Amino acid sequence: MIASAFEVVLALVATYGVVVLLCVFVLEGALIGKLIPTRTLFVATVLAVGTDLVAFLPVVVAAVVGATLGQVLLFVSVRRFGVDPTESRVVPVTTDRVDDAGDWLDRWGLPAVAVS
């Protein structure tokens, strides 16, 4: 299933360009559980465009901006609108996992956020 989703997204990127890549990375940034292997998609897109800087730069910008926008959307939805991603049936997260993440962040602080 993941392989077929990857092939569909790669075909969409080939047809519509970096706009699709931007949308995929927004979803990747916003979703707790990842649906498609975006890193593989990024590498495949980079290999497809080649070494030309003019073609490579929009791919990198779309990936970075998309993932950042997705994370911002997730943050705003939790902070402003009270959305609790742990209550989603689509992405099951147990309270033990949430507690483990909290302990990890308490122990390592800001460097843990940067590494994750």
Secondary structure layout plus pairing:
Elements: H1 2-16, H2 18-30, H3 38-49, H4 53-79, H5 95-108, H6 110-115
Transmembrane segments: 9-33, 53-76
Keywords: Membrane, Transmembrane, Transmembrane helix
Please describe what this structure looks like:
- The chain crosses the membrane at residues 9-33, 53-76.
- Keywords: Membrane, Transmembrane, Transmembrane helix.
- By secondary structure, the protein is mostly helical.
- It folds into two domains: 2-83, no CATH class; 85-116, no CATH class.
- Helices cover 75% and strands 0% of the residues.
- The protein has helices spanning 2-16, 18-30, 38-49, 53-79, 95-108, 110-115.
Structural class: mainly alpha
Fraction in beta strands: under 5%
Order of helices and strands: HHHHHH
Number of domains: 2
Helix content bin: over 70%
Low-confidence stretches: none
What is the radius of gyration?
A: 16 Å
Number of strands: 0
| Distance, first to last CA | 26 Å
The overall pLDDT average reads: 80
Label the overall shape.
elongated
Describe the biggest sheet? Answer: none
Helical stretch tally: 6
Transmembrane segments: 9-33, 53-76
Keywords: Membrane, Transmembrane, Transmembrane helix
